[in-house]
Amino acid sequence: MINILMHYIAYSMSSIFFMLTGADISGIKVDRQLKPGTIMAQVHDESEDDKVHIPPDISFEDLVVDINFHPSKPLIAAGIITGDVTLHSYASSANTLVKTFKHHKKATRAVAFSKDGNSLITSSKDKSLQVVDVETGKVSQCFSQAHPSPVYCQLVISDRLLATGDDDGNVKLWDLRKGHPIMELQENQDFISDMAVDEEKRFLLATSGDGTMTTFNIRRRKMVVQSENMEDEMLSVAIVKDGTKVICGTGEGALNFFNWEEFGNISDRFPGHPMSVDCIVPVTENIVCTGSMDGVIRAVNILPNRFMGVVGEHEEFPIEKIRITPNSEIIASCSHDQKIKFWHVAHLEKETIDASKKAKRDNKPKNLKKTAGQEDFFADFGKDLEVKPAAESEDDLSEEEGDSDNEEEPENADNGSESEESDDFLSDDDSDDLDEDDSADEDDDDSAEDSDSNTTESEERTGDEDEKDVTKDKPDSDTSGKQ
């Protein structure tokens, strides 16, 4: 009783103090430390110019598995566990549902816009791959059996090239204009968790649940090198530091680093996440945001490796996916709480890192959230949400990927990892033959195969009650993966 009375007196006195002094306590927010279960109160002293408006949350009735931003308009696509795909317009004042696509019979695991934004590409647990016209909502291409196993992830490489990976370690490279895969390889023994491609679009990097990262030569359409087995699931991958470093998130919560062209073994390892790092998105060349199974989105500085602070969180719900807008000012995240949340990250590049101090796992991170102020983020977007189809690119595959004469293979590390030897390099004659083959295929097949690939094979969607289980199950070994 005495303790309660003392707390009441202290609260009353502090209230009177703030009333008399006029102190502003509206900026006090609670932040989570790197160590779950502890909190830190922090006062944010932000000027009006530093404050920004971010879109409100988007709530769903079912679990959101994947999200992606439109390349030029304020639109965000979401893949739902029921098989639906939604398209929302977002703004600081409100979000609006624009379209709902019902083309998959099972969970939609991956969604991505084409480079021109005219098409939405979706992959599903029902093993299908579909290309949907954003303006009309009609399926322009349907591959009902795109993979022998459920598709786990996908990556849009260019206007015509798409990479997909499935539950059993199969990787396919698709030429959407030809309407069929141009590479099919199974170099992994477990699910393909994530993929990344360099700016020159020469090499495709794929992480896997079997503990390896595999590098594929896009031009040669073959595997180049596979890393040493890390004895831990490799769940996410991103290219940073102007293409000189590759960073991978693991099941144990560490970040593994590879030097570019040295993909046989890691060059550095940065532990600290309390649980698995399920997704990574670069914000700048030196800063990434990570989504962890503990529900926290963290900003991490790369070299020196430091936790900068907490950007956002979904309470205790695992972070499924984080994506960044084309202008790199806002990231969106989805989780098991059936919400898409938005977080401001443009201010991260202004944060300073003291490289002289040694990193500590129990450092208290700053709360990096920003939630109020100006609406200048949306100034770059057009007000008209109508997406008009663009003319189909006629560039040859050889032009997209660059001349093979100038192409370099990653060097194989001397660690016994699987790789291709010096005969993987293309000779001048081989390069010319490959260019001629691609050109001939395009001339002969443009009309016939494009017509075939544009044939709609949309199947009638049926309910699947099993897909509404909120607990996600990664293939076989993991319990936090996709449905």
UniProtKB/TrEMBL annotation:
Residues 354-365, 381-391, 469-483 have a biased composition (Basic and acidic residues). This is WDR55 protein. The gene is WDR55. Residues 354-483 are annotated as: Disordered. WD repeats lie at residues 101-142, 144-184. Keywords: Repeat, WD repeat. Belongs to the WD repeat WDR55 family. Signal peptide: none annotated. Residues 392-452 have a biased composition (Acidic residues). It comes from the Eukaryota. The keyword Repeat applies. InterPro entries: WD40/YVTN_repeat-like_dom_sf (IPR015943), WD40_repeat_CS (IPR019775), WD40_repeat_dom_sf (IPR036322), WD40_rpt (IPR001680), WDR55/POC1 (IPR050505). The keyword Iron-sulfur does not apply. Pfam families: WDR55. Transmembrane segments: none annotated.
